[in-house]
Amino acid sequence: MTIAALAPYASHAARSRGRRHAEADAPTRSCFQRDRDRIVHSTAFRRLVYKTQVFLNHEGDLFRTRLTHSLEVAQLGRSIGRSLRLDEDLIETIALAHDLGHTPFGHAGQDVLDECMAADGGFEHNLQSLRVVDQLEQRYPAFDGLNLCYESREGILKHCARSKAEQLEAQEPQGVAYRFLHGFQPSLEAQLCNLADEVAYNAHDIDDGVRSGLLELEQLREVPLVDRYLRETLSAYPQLQGKRLLFETIRRMLSQQVYDIVDASSAAIEAAAPADEHAVRQAPPLIRFSSEMRRESSALKKFLFAKLYRHPQVQAQRQKAEQVLRELFSIYRADPGLLPDGGDGSRSHARACADYIAGMTDRFALKEHERLTGRRLFD
Q1: Is 287 within 8 Å of 261 (Cβ atoms)?
Q2: Torsion angles phi and psi, residue 216, rounded to 5
Q3: In whole angstroms, what is the distance from residue 205 CA to residue 32 CA?
Q4: Cα–Cα dist 298/302, whole Å
Q5: Distance (Å, rounded) from C-alpha 306 to C-alpha 301?
Q6: Where does the record place the HD domain (predicted)?
Q7: Ordered domains of the chain (ranges, CATH)
Q8: Helix (H) and strand (E) counts for the chain?
Q9: In the chain, what is the greatest distance between 2 CA atoms, to the nearest angstrom?
Q10: CA distance 249 to 66
Q11: Which residues contact 202 (CB under 8 A, 6 or more apart)?
Q12: Which one in 10, 17, 145, 355 has a CA-CA gap of 20 to 30 Å to 334?
């Protein structure tokens, strides 16, 4: 999308707050395009293909991973962003980078590392994603990290506790944590990625849940949002069943959520009338569902939490995953020589252990655990 086609309230690459380390402009790409390309070529991005979404990576080839989830968020984000005349390159950058800090084994891994790091600052995957792009990727001779633009980094940091925001603000005054201390909003592109993340999660977890056999399509009739499009699909195709019925139901649900976001957000933007991206930050959140769709999406999330994420089979796998990472942390903490760099001295040993484990794929964590303990916890 050309600059002329962007709305005045969109993030304009030409007006970016820039990078922490100055670089010359690229002759053929905007700064947001360069950020996207740096993410795609990063080591952390490639690792997402073997990191869990809900089901562990070894449980099946067709279940979502962090990589496929990130691609789906990017697709949804770009589709909605184009209708709202936002910067699609920035949307794609944020979407592709938002899970770079996720641990192996999904949220189970985050919970374990937060527990293990309780005395050393804790662990949170949003902060870790920022840490990956700011420090841990080492590809350039002049600086650590990927040296992304402020707007990309702002979008990656979706959540931040006040204590952490104060620490970041001390290191980078009026930087990416400033808004958490003063109640400002991020760009519309960042707001959109947050909502596209939720939409993608709900849709593909339905798909994976039914595909795994842990959910039955008939169960989903108790969720109004799903039931409406299941009935609509069967009305149009009375004989449809199996995968095609599931896929068409999800497709219709996704489409309506996209249209709902476009309509509700357009109305909110028109009412707030932000003159530019700076005015966006002073306004309330402007990218949103309608009130009815928000209620229905929340009901779907509650259903998935109760019926899928807390399913006994998922919980059993989660407990094994927690044991793997808890034992790995203990082993590395006791012997710094086991870390690849032996501890480079630029961070605490505990943080070095957390960084190393967080960067692992599911299968590498399992192999390392078996190598170091002589035990295999997963079949």
Answers
A1: yes
A2: -105, 140
A3: 30
A4: 6
A5: 9
A6: 66-202
A7: 17-373 (1.10.3210.10)
A8: 17, 0
A9: 65
A10: 23
A11: 297, 300, 301, 304
A12: 145
Tell whether the model's pLDDT for residue 58 goes beyond 90.
Answer: no
Q: Is 43 helix (H, G, I), strand (E, B) or coil?
A: helix
**Tokens at residue 147, please?**
């040296």
**In the Cβ-directed half-sphere of 261, how many Cα atoms lie within 13 Å?**
28
Residue-wise pLDDT tens digits, 129-178: 999 999 999 999 999 999 999 999 999 999 999 999 999 999 999 999 99
Strands (E), 213-316: none
- What's the pLDDT at 111? 94
How many other C-beta atoms are found inside a 10 Å radius of the C-beta of residue 38? 21
| pLDDT at res. 3 | 47
Q: Count CB-CB contacts under 10 A for residue 159.
A: 12
Cα 268 to Cα 182, 236, 348, distances in angstroms: 22, 34, 46
User: What does the pLDDT look like over 252-287, one tens digit per residue?
Assistant: 999 999 999 999 999 999 999 999 999 999 999 999
pLDDT tens digits, one per residue of 124-135: 999 999 999 999
Residue indicated by tokens 């095609």: 244
